[in-house]
# Entry
Amino acid sequence: MHIEISTRHGGLVPETQAHIHDKAEKLLKYFGRLMAIEVEVEHLKHSWQVEIFVSAEHKHDFIAREEGPTPESAMDQCVHKIEQQLRRYKEKVTHHKGDVSLGEISPVSEDLPESPEPA
# Structure
């Protein structure tokens, strides 16, 4: 898997870059079939904006964008959004086989005697 970190309008200190890289690597825990992760960090006037682009196999892409006072806090919020998307996608992919729709379920018949109808 490939992780790419790019910055716009400024640079990142090595500690911040390492923090972002570690957070991006942790996304593999939620879905192991990721092909690439791109993180774009942009320094705005009084805040930082982080965008994450995650490519999973079979052409599924996930995108999240967050803004925060520091690049670390914006990255944490952004990773949380991507985690939710990956969890939902993984659940959808792994639990789609073997499901029985409500129309296919036959009613359960109980072996109780029928009550007589009032005359």
User: Anything to note?
Assistant: The chain has one domain: 2-93. The longest helix spans residues 71-94. Residues 2-93 form a domain with the Double Stranded RNA Binding Domain fold (CATH 3.30.160.100). Strands lie at 2-8, 34-43, 48-56, 60-68.
